[in-house]
Amino acid sequence: MGVVVRQSIKGSIMNYLGVLVGFFTTFFIVTKYLTPEEVGLTRVLVDASILLSGLAQLGTSTSAMRYYPYFKDEKEKDHGFFGWSVLIPFVGFIIFSILFFVFKQPIENYFSKNSELFVDYIYFVIPMAFFMMYLTVFETNSNLLMRIVIPKFIREVGIRIMTLVVYLLYAFEVISLDGMVITLCLSYGVATILNVIYLFSLKKVSFKIQPAYVSKWLRRDFIFYTLFLIATSLSSTLIPFLNTFFVSGKLGLAIAGINTIAVYIASIVEIPYRSLAAISRPHISQGMKDNDMSLVNNLTKNVSLHQFMVSSFVFFLIWINIELIYTLIPNGNVYDEAKYVVLILSLVKIVNTSLNVGATVLSYSKYYYYSLLFTIILAVVAIVMNIQLIPIMGMEGAALASLISYVVYYALLLLFVNYKVKVSPFSIKELYTLIIIVVLFVFDYLFQKYISKYFVTIFNIEIIGQICDSIVRTIILSMVGITAIYKFKISKQVNDIIDKFISLLKKT
Asked: Are 495 and 380 found together in one domain?
């Protein structure tokens, strides 16, 4: 768990550096210089590209984690494993690109009424998806070598810096809207090349595949597993983007743009998950291969606990400052109508990041094919809920549809994993964490009711009073929360980090 925590912390630092760049880009450049419709366009383009790239991978990211232990051999250059990881997605990209053109007309018909601008740029989905696909492939190969920091920096910081430059060029009319879309595509291409260079620097990577090394059993198991992943991807890859596609298709790109800002705020909640999940999956895969269920169970509980603890705490900090966030961003009065979308989607992120490790365990177990059943249930519930709730509640309906579908999905999936695999992500410490978060919300309510009003009076300027009140509340309540986690010994790893920090302070 030490390697997992160290790499996770380093990866999270890269993620949060990216958040700082993304925060500035989204809240002070995008909202100021792009119209809500243009914001919606970029969101739909990116999400459509992620969807296509996810399908085209043919489950490579998951299957690589599962089968790498069978190929791992540095002297033999992993028996051509890297070559397979490059070839299979390429085949998938050709297949799904053909399907994209086959179904292009129905797609255009769906978006043409309320999101005509997306139809004008729909062809850019192809090159952007290609770059995204191999960006993920090369990042996965680095993850298998327990090296996530540089790939995380490229994805979370590098792409965001390039995106910031693109938006600034558009803001100052150096490039047109066409140029903005083209350079956004190219930024993913540059990121992909950087990932290739880094991967090659880690070890001698060979593009040469070795079909003879793949045993009959391994080949049969891989083909069956890949076909299963393709079927699963048809629904699981679509689900995260249903919100974007339903909102843009039914409500228009302008509403999708407003929703995009809310989605971005909520996405901050899941940032630690990206690092912890990336570094923990190879350990879970190895544990399942070795049938070390004690290790898998302990790791699952550890990952779930730390994800719940961190994501809940981040959500708390966001929500107590939500009014100030929308006050500070340009044109915040346009975007703040999605405030409750942030609340609902943040809860979705907490549920997903805390419990997704259960789905990971299932995917690496001998019962992995049951994942398809649960994914289909998730997709069906999500689609039905979106159709029912968007006409009634608009953006909030789409967000609530996501929450309902994920709660149903994880309730069924985790019951199955506990019954068949004898692994559960839950522990009593998560209940203690929940109690601490609830108490913090109570403290925040009391603070705002009895103390916050004096900040405006002291500074005589409402916005300065709001900022000072937010800073003071955030610092005080953060210290209360951290102290409670430390005193109640919720996490040994967190306590060790705090002890080291205290030790360093005593030495200075």
From this structure: no
- pLDDT at residue 382 is higher than 70: yes
Residues 410 and 480 in one domain: no
Q: What is the mean pLDDT of the chain?
A: 83
Looking at the structure, do residues 451 and 360 belong to the same domain, yes or no? no
Query: 464 and 414, same structural domain?
Result: no
- CA 234 to CA 241: how far, in whole Å? 12
Within 8 A by CB and 6+ apart from 245, the residues are 44, 47, 48
Asked if residues 107 and 125 have their Cβ atoms less than 8 Å apart, the reply is no
Return the CA Rg of the chain: 23
Query: Considering only CA atoms, which of 28, 104, 92, 87 is closest in space to residue 332?
Result: 28
The length of the chain, given as a count of residues: 508
d(CA 242, CA 257): 15
Kindly write down the DSSP assignment for every residue of 464-494, as one continuous string. HHHHHHHHHHHHHHHHHHHHHHHHTT--HHH
Token representation of residue 504: 């360093």
* pLDDT interval class at 1 (50, 70, 90): very low
Range of the domain at 469: 427-508
Residues 447 and 413 in one domain: no
End residue of a domain, out of 395, 426, 457 = 426
Query: How many domains is the chain partitioned into structurally?
Result: 2
The pLDDT > 70 percentage for the chain reads: 85
User: How far apart (Å, rounded) are the C-alpha atoms in residues 326 and 320?
Assistant: 12
What the block records as the tokens of 85 is: 């990881």
**CB–CB of 150/11 below 8 Å?**
no
User: Same structural domain for residues 406 and 436?
Assistant: no
User: How many Cα atoms sit within 13 Å of 261 on the Cβ side?
Assistant: 35
| Assessment of whether the complete model's pTM goes beyond 0.70 | yes
Task: Identify the pLDDT of residue 348.
Answer: 93
| One domain for residues 383 and 488 | no
Q: Which helix (H) or strand (E) holds 501?
A: helix 492-507
pLDDT at 317 > cutoff 80: yes
Calpha distance 385→398 (Å, rounded): 8
Rounded to a whole number, what is the distance in angstroms from the first to the last CA of the chain? 29
3-state helix, strand, coil in the chain (%, to 5): 85, 0, 15
Same domain, 28 and 175: yes
- The model's confidence at residue 87, banded by pLDDT at 50, 70 and 90, is confident
Q: What is the pLDDT of residues 383-426, one digit of tens each?
A: 999 999 998 998 999 999 999 999 999 999 999 999 988 888 88
pLDDT in tens, 223-276: 777 777 676 666 656 777 777 888 888 888 888 888 888 988 898 888 766 666
Q: Which of 363, 397, 426 is the last residue of a domain?
A: 426
